[in-house]
Each structure stands twice: as C-alpha cells, then as structure tokens.
Amino acid sequence: MSCDVDAAVQAALKSRAAIEQAKGILMVTYGISADRAFELLKWRSQESNIPVRKLAAQIVADFTIRPLVPPRIRDHADHLLLTAHERVPMDETDDGG
Q: What is the reported pTM?
C-alpha cells in the first residue's frame, strides 16, 4: 500500500509541476496573473474535454520544443536575469535565503 501512496503522490506532484509551468508560460505570454492563467487553462480544458493536467503537460511540451522568444527579447531577459540580484531590496531581517 505504501508504494501505491508514494506513486500517487509522485504523480500528483508531476501533474502540479506541469500545471504551474503552463501557468507561468501563459502569464509571461499574455501578461496575466497566476489566477487568470489557471482560469484560462480550466476554460480550455472544459472546452476541449481534456483534463487540465494533460492540457498543461502538452502546453509545456509545445512551448519548450524550440524557443519562441525573439533574440532581442531574449537578450533583455538575459540582462534581467543576470542583474536581478542588484534590484532585490534587502530587508534588515533578511537572512539571505
């Protein structure tokens, strides 16, 4: 029984990860909130009669096959990534983690 529970937990975590990744893709692509991205996934799931987890996994696969971001935008993203630490406000109670 423990193996069944472990397998179920692993499957749920994998599904959740795909849903979160798909939400992130939709958030960046459409400039929407996480809640709105999930609503969009749910809507497409209902319209297509495909479970959200399967739809999310397909979206992640589709968007990661090849880069869709033009080089100029990627250059800007590179800059933001490499300099993000310079814009993080340091709080006196921040332990660095």
A: 0.71
